[in-house]
Amino acid sequence: MRHVPLTALLLTLSAAGAATPTFLNVATGSPTGTYSAMFKNIGLVCTQNAYLRERGTSGSLENIDLLLSNEVSLAFVQSDVLKARQQIDKDPRVENIKALLPLHREELHLFARPPVVKKNILGRTTTTGIQTFADLKDKRVGAWGGSLITARVLTAMSGVPFQVVSLKDQPSAFAALQSGQVDAVLAVVGQPATWVKNLSGVNLIAVPTNARLSAIYTPAKLFYPNLSANSVPTIAVQSVLATRDFKTPERKQLLLGYQKCAMSHLVNLQEDEGMHPKWQDVDFKTWPWPRYK
Hints:
Elements (H helix, E strand, L loop, with lengths): L5 H10 L8 E4 L6 H12 L6 E4 L4 H9 L5 E5 H9 L9 E16 L3 E4 L5 E4 L11 E4 L2 H13 L4 E4 L3 H10 L4 E6 L4 H4 L5 E2 L13 E5 L9 E13 L4 H16 L1 H6 L22
Parallel strand pairs: 1-2, 1-3, 7-8, 7-9
Antiparallel strand pairs: 3-12, 4-9, 4-10, 4-12, 5-6, 11-12
Keywords: Receptor, Signal
InterPro entries: TRAP_TAXI
Protein name: TRAP transporter solute receptor like protein
């Protein structure tokens, strides 16, 4: 597909009655995160995306708030955050949110300190700490951003009651884990996450699924040789690039053009060197949220 120069696109819009170019803000996440990387990747194959401006954020939870409050026009979000806002919070504004692009699945990463093994005077050993998901019962699980919503959905649907502790970001979450302020940390991020590959002194805990969870999440496995010699079972949630249901012709043309370009260049996004490996999980076929048309 031939790239459309930005100048030609703007001239076309001007001829159609648009007085000035339309610029749209896009909420992504941290500069080193998957959302930011994928946004930049699309920009490499869709040159007409020059009208999109990235806004760094703390992740899905902030992104959906920015989108709903009309501070950005597009936002990368976890689909479970959207569903929770719709089904749990009963926020009527969510009905105006549409999926511009269905993206990758983001895996649930559950971390805990290594268990402590003690031997008593009789030579008997006891083990304390989090070794399985069931061990989270009545414990404190730290999370930040969209992972806060996932943690709340997880404790409600898994049958394992635990306290969700809101933390500022990834560094503060692991500081709280190491100091004992929380017993585990939950992070929803597409693997391989650079910061996870740099971790040490923590274990990955398997996250099981059940009939209730399978309505939102799919089975997955984590592969981090620095944390486990074997793969660790978990579940994943699909992310989307969401927008509001804009009706103005010039904005609709921009958004649908961006959507069409990204979908027609999926092979480039998957195979060109330097693209994020999570593009391998994208097929643009599964829409977990109503599509923008």
